[in-house]
Write a structure and sequence with these properties.
mainly alpha, single chain, 196 residues, two-stranded antiparallel ribbon, 10 helices
Length: 196
């Protein structure tokens, strides 16, 4: 959770980047230079900022990782006139590279995920191959149906099951809806066949 000083520093860095610690401190007159330096160091460790260069040539920029998780206030955004909004005109393909270098989860979240994975592996170790396949088919049906429903698909859960298990399309539904569900199932099958 960010405090107001951290948010102020990020706003300053976004405006002036790349910025030196002195430039940033000058724009925060109510905070001592030493405190700003400590805050900047912590923000680098927390992956909110990146530092470019060393010593006196050090400059701070907002990290790509922060941009993935930057808080957004939709109410404030839509209060602005459309000309004043910062609108991103297309997909940011550099996010793909960023995802390879950014820790998406905190240490606590990773510990929790690893514990859940260990529990899952212990649970499935007791299943027969037929029981495991049955459970994964049920997961595929539920996950495909719910994910597609979120995207506007109108297949019911029963129709989804019939499509995925018997390849029977539902009357009155579009081909695109059936393809969406089948693609979800294929993606899950790929993950199960390639767990790494």
């Amino acid at each position: 959770m960010q405090n107001s000083k951290t948010t102020q520093i990020i706003d300053i860095v976004r405006r002036i980047q790349p910025g030196s610690s002195k430039e940033i401190a000058d724009l925060l007159p109510q905070v001592s230079y030493a405190t700003v330096k400590r805050m900047l160091a912590k923000m680098v460790v927390d992956n909110l900022l990146e530092v470019k260069g060393t010593g006196r040539a050090s400059r701070y920029v907002v990290s790509p990782g922060y941009l993935l998780f930057a808080p957004i206030d939709p109410e404030q955004y839509f209060k602005k006139e459309i000309d004043e909004r910062e609108i991103i005109g297309g997909y940011n393909f550099s996010l793909i590279d960023t995802l390879e270098t950014v820790n998406l989860f905190s240490r606590e979240e990773l510990d929790k995920l690893n514990a859940l994975e260990d529990k899952f592996r212990a649970n499935i170790a007791t299943l027969t191959e037929a029981e495991y396949r049955k459970d994964m088919n049920r997961l595929a049906i539920d996950l495909s149906w719910k994910s597609s429903q979120i995207e506007g698909n109108t297949y019911s859960l029963l129709e989804t099951e019939r499509l995925l298990m018997e390849r029977e399309t539902a009357p009155g539904k579009t081909k695109a809806e059936a393809i969406m569900l089948l693609n979800h199932k294929d993606a899950l099958d790929f993950i199960l066949q390639n767990p790494d």
